[in-house]
Amino acid sequence: MDEFAAQVSAVIPRLRRYARALTGDTLTADDLVQDTLERALTKRHLWRPGSDLRAWMFTVMHNIFVNQVRSRSAQNTVALEQEAYDVPAKASPVDLLELGDIDAAIRQLPGEQREVLLLVALEQLSYEEVAQALGIPIGTVMSRLYRACERVRVLLEGGGASGLKVVK
Amino acid sequence: MSQPQITEAKLHASIDGRLPASALADVQAWLREHPQDAERIAQYRRQNAALHGAYDEILKEAVPDGLLRLAQRPPRRWWLRHAAVLAWFALGGVIGAIGGWKYHESWRAKGVHADANAQSIPYFVRQAAVAHVVYVPEVRHPVEVGADQEAHLVAWLSKRLNTRLRIPHLGELGYTLVGGRLLPGHSETRAAAPVRSSCIRMRRASA
User: Fold this and answer.
1) Which of A61, A120, B72, B114 lies at a C-alpha separation of 20 to 30 Å from B166?
2) Single pTM value for the model
3) Nearest chain B Cα to A98, which residue?
């Protein structure tokens, strides 16, 4: 196994964690990871040895994710809306645990805010790395982060879990 | 002593561990004086902890074999691609020469005197390269007739090219016939019979 393959293999668990949190679905997440690996392998000449492979892999994944979401919404807006309604319905009615709450809450975030929050809080990338991975200015990273944190707080605190359950 | 205004950026940086130690004291002092901010920041920390609680499990899961195998695939694409290009060139040359023999009588006469520069690359070779670029990414439909129907392929292409076509067997060189397809030529019909390096074939078979 060469250095690139070794590093890519080492990053897979984190790619899976991020993809799962981003998509909310195991199969979709692993498809996203697979697409990311394939793209990364064909684009490996773009990776500079010695630079942080992890941040670069998140860039690759972001690009694929954005394209998938875009093509999905272009082809089928109905499905996307249904998906949005599915999430609260899946949350169990009475006793949502806090872990379930946080998952339901981040599902309610717009994709762009969810990406920033997850990359910062879950994957612990630096703000600069997030800006680079998402191809946005650092100021945009910060404002999306503020909004994401605050929205999750309101969702979780607005009567605790019930704030989420009320959504039909 | 007046306290410095603490920005939202600094509050978040303190949560995310991105604040220099020197600035941390200021943030802590601010939070002591501003309980609303303190409660909000504490909640943000709980949210982040909840994210880890919800998703860190995945880090301990066994990575699916398919993903591991994909990551550890050796980097051989570039030379395989070159091998494929060479094979296409070779076959494009052979088949193009057969298919366009009559038409190229006049070209051949000129070709004998042509300089050995880029201009002298025969048209059918360039055409073979274009066909290669177009069809090599095809996974499901690389050819019109597969190698499993080689007899039919030969008969069909021979009829269309109006000549007796023979497909060379390059197995000893490590190439396997994929099949064949018709190509439009400059002013006549051409055909391509791509071959694949057996290394790719083995990879596909094992995938």
Assistant:
1) B114
2) 0.60
3) B50
